[in-house]
Design a protein that fits this description.
The protein is mainly beta. It contains 2 helices and 45 strands. Residues 1-84 have low confidence and may be disordered.
């Protein structure tokens, strides 16, 4: 029997062979992952210097060389999450259409609401002819209301430079609020990088006293004006065509207001991106009063989409509620149908009721997380549309919805509910997508807009800003090498100490898995000091999924693999840390709320 030093790792540990050449044992001091290459295995003993305890581990025999481990390479997607299609951005252009509000002479109380997605978000607001203000710094999740100069209200028709530019170093959402007396309208402002260069023009709704009868429409009386388009340019000189023959040039950040008098007008086309609003300065609504009526149009789309219509939108006005459908080359006005609360169109759908033009969210644009903010001194609500089998997954902040009243959307698999909101509500779903609208109420008139989307990635932990990343390694290697492999990719060997997270990870693995992979390393191993199992993320080991007969003794394995074989239910086993296996690399999501 002899003691022979094999290698010294400065400041870490020394490695010794103990025994004869035919029967070697390895002794090292310090509790760190082992450096080894898979080869012919021998039993070794680990002596912990501080505790003078002995534990067995299955390490490599460094005496006899052997071939390198078998490496099988194949590609997996880095993440199964869909990139968020959200309402957040860095640059926005806002305009405030003319609002005469029951002919009242008082100044408008217009505002913009900005919500920050990250800490230290610096925001500047610039009026068309002024230097940028600020920057103002917002915290993650913070929402601020900024009053807007009354002179920013547009006037009549024609060209104008009255645009408000909002710029940020980090992502934000922006909502425009137009208020004057009892007339209020809100709009979700689309980031400039999500604007389009073609839009479908909706049909004109039938509004008694404004557009009906048709012979009363005139440019000389405000409440009987034609509907108009407000076309807002971005940062390049832009050629814009409305219909087939009305063409004009917009300078950077300039806008033009155009009457929609010709029913043959079908599209707005531009060489570069523009924003387009559709509406009326003061359309008649009830009790011989008129109010502002506007909606932001989405860019043109030629794919047939489904739009769901919550019946509460038509409450008390069923005979005067319509859906304005615009497609390439055609438009139609469809009456609200009490028996089928869904429409299909290869284009745009806008719901109309007196006082409200609401751009409907197509099913393809449903999302998992929205932010909804109340308007001060105004009843404010979140209108939620979700599959009827998934209502339990809807949350308002940290709580599930409290006693919601779900209303069926006839002829569909969806239901809707109206939830009162406070100064800020984060509405999110833990496993699916849904539609959420902001609604406000002034006297009997509703107004609103699609709620700002934060994320399209559902997650049981909360509202996701940046989705989780999961990767099955494309090489088979030892546990320690797998740890390094993951870290080199900015990830960690997966730790999932809680049962809910374990189920979540198993579902994701099923989507990622290649049948070639039968088992993978996870971020659990046995402590050489205590012999107890621990997670790399330092969470306690409570919820486990050990395979039958596992875990074994300290002589049976120091590191943990998870089986991906069919019928094994992702069972865990203790294995030799030098055993070649693939690994699950993981990065937790970044949450806006959770």
């Amino acid at each position: 029997m002899c003691l022979r030093q094999c290698a010294v790792f400065p400041c870490l540990f020394s490695v010794y062979f103990l025994g004869s050449c035919s029967s070697c044992f390895l002794v090292f001091f310090f509790d760190l992952p082992f450096l080894c290459t898979p080869s012919v295995f021998s039993w070794i003993f680990v002596k912990i210097k501080t505790q003078a305890q002995y534990f067995a581990c299955h390490l490599c025999n460094w005496v006899q060389p052997s071939p390198p481990p078998l490496t099988i390479s194949f590609s997996f997607p880095e993440s199964i999450a869909t990139p968020p299609g959200d309402s957040t951005g860095l640059n926005f252009i806002v305009v405030f259409p003319e609002n005469i509000a029951d002919y009242h002479p008082e100044a408008p109380q217009n505002k913009v609401r900005i919500t920050a997605m990250n800490d230290n978000t610096q925001v500047t607001i610039q009026y068309f002819n002024d230097k940028p203000g600020g920057p103002d710094t917002l915290r993650k999740g913070e929402t601020r209301l900024y009053p807007v100069n009354a002179n920013m209200d547009l006037w009549k028709t024609g060209f104008s430079n009255k645009t408000l530019k909002i710029n940020s170093k980090k992502t934000i959402t922006v909502q425009a609020i137009n208020c004057k007396k009892n007339s209020a309208q809100t709009a979700l402002v689309i980031p400039t990088d999500q604007l389009g260069n073609e839009y479908f023009i909706p049909p004109i709704p039938n509004i008694q006293g404004t557009t009906v009868p048709s012979d009363i429409v005139t440019t000389g009386v405000t409440e009987r004006n034609p509907f108009k388009l407000i076309i807002v340019n971005t940062d390049k000189v832009n050629k814009v065509t409305v219909g087939n023959n009305q063409t004009f040039i917009l300078q950077p950040f300039q806008l033009n207001q155009v009457w929609v008098q010709d029913k043959t007008l079908r599209t707005v086309k531009a060489d570069n991106a523009v924003a387009v609003l559709f509406g009326h300065t003061c359309a008649m609504k009830d009790n011989c009063t008129c109010g502002q009526l506007y909606a932001t149009l989405p860019p043109a789309n030629d794919v047939k989409l489904k739009f769901y219509i919550p019946p509460i939108l038509a409450n008390n006005v069923e005979d005067n509620a319509f859906v304005l459908l615009s497609e390439r080359g055609s438009t139609r006005v469809q009456a609200f149908n009490k028996d089928l609360q869904m429409v299909e169109a290869a284009g745009t759908a806008i719901f109309y009721r007196p006082g409200l033009l609401l751009t409907l969210i197509p099913e393809t644009d449903f999302a998992s997380c929205y932010v909804v903010n109340a308007i001060p001194d105004t009843p404010s609500f979140a209108l939620i549309v979700v599959n009827k089998s998934l209502t339990d997954g809807v949350h308002n902040g940290g709580l599930s919805l409290q006693n919601p009243v779900w209303q069926e959307l006839k002829g569909t698999e969806y239901v809707s509910t109206l939830v009162a909101v406070g100064s800020q509500s984060v509405i999110w779903h833990d496993s699916s997508e849904m539609a959420v609208y902001f609604l406000g109420k002034k006297k009997t008139a509703l107004f609103g807009n699609p709620a700002p989307i934060i994320s399209k990635t559902p997650d049981f932990r909360g509202c996701v800003l940046s989705p989780e990343v999961m990767k099955i390694a494309d090489v088979s290697d030892g546990w320690r090498e797998s740890l390094k492999y993951c870290k080199d990719k900015g990830l960690e060997l997966v730790s999932f100490p809680k049962a809910q997270l374990q189920r979540h990870i198993y579902e994701k693995i099923l989507q990622l898995k290649n049948d070639t992979v039968q088992e993978v390393w996870i971020g659990m191993r046995r402590s050489s000091r205590s012999g107890e199992w621990y997670w790399l993320n330092q969470q306690p080991v409570n919820d486990t999924n050990w395979d039958e007969g596992e875990p074994g003794t300290v002589f049976d394995g120091q590191c943990v693999v998870m089986s991906l074989e069919k019928g094994k239910d992702f069972g865990w086993s203790g294995k030799d840390c030098c055993k070649p296996a693939y690994s699950i690399c993981y990065k937790e999501p970044v949450l806006f709320w959770g």
